[in-house]
Amino acid sequence: MNPATAVSVGTAKPRVLFVDDEPRVLTSLRMLFRGQYEIHCAQGGAQALELLRRQPVDVIVSDQRMPGMTGIELLRAARELNPAAMRILLTGYSDLNAIIGSINEGEIFRFVAKPWSNEDLTATVARAVAAARASLAVASARPDLPTSEMPASAGVLVLDDDPAVFAQIQAILGAGYRVHGATGLEQAVDVLARERVGVIISDTRVQDQPVVALIGTLKRHQPELVAVILTDRADAGAAIELINQGQIYRFITKPIREGHCKIAVHSALRQHQRLAQQPELHRRYEVEPAVEPPSASPVKGLLDRIRALRVWASGRA
Fold it and tell me: What is the pLDDT of residues 297-311, one digit of tens each?
């Protein structure tokens, strides 16, 4: 295993790298986490990349707004140097483009809003460290599928209240993919009950209901399921919720571009197959603990059906 790409399994403590252009912030983070981890600090992206070229870390926590190199630019480059490391982005709600870019290019484990709560940040870093260690055994043990191989054994579910979106995606993907459509949450669960679905493509809201609770529950009970979000709404708060509570894999913006859609879905199906074959990786895509909706909520019954669906699917298997 290349020492430049391995996480720090041989060290007594997990290694955590904090990146910020303000020395006082780095000092505060070092004080907050001292004694728990082997702490490394970098004052900016260039310094962080130089450190990663010398040694791997388990977790990278980076600010977004830094001169010279933004947090997402850093995490994109860090993914190449140290792919097994978990990546956390500290960001404000105004950084929508950074948020979408970090999902599509940096595969962020969590967003932490600034100013952060020390309790939330320490818990998030602890989860990231646990995920890095849990997935270490398979981080480089098996190669990804060749890009030319299309894992078509699992289907694709398109969830959008506009039926034309399903028709458009079905036409873009062609006959080589099994594509199912649903215009509401109930219909989507019906499809999941009878079809093997590996990727769900959904708008952020369907029939005026946010899908984050649905996606999050599906991810908790079917961790190999991969979610791709379609949106024409510039909502940074919703994007942060979808990654933290649903671990969405990619964003596709509307109007849908054929090439972008095909690449995203193909990659998502490959990710589904990877997660199905290597359950040790599930911790890397773990969602935040659920906030149970009120019993009167129309979503509550759907979430209960999903939980029952997982038991039924396991029993059938």
Answer: 666 677 777 777 654
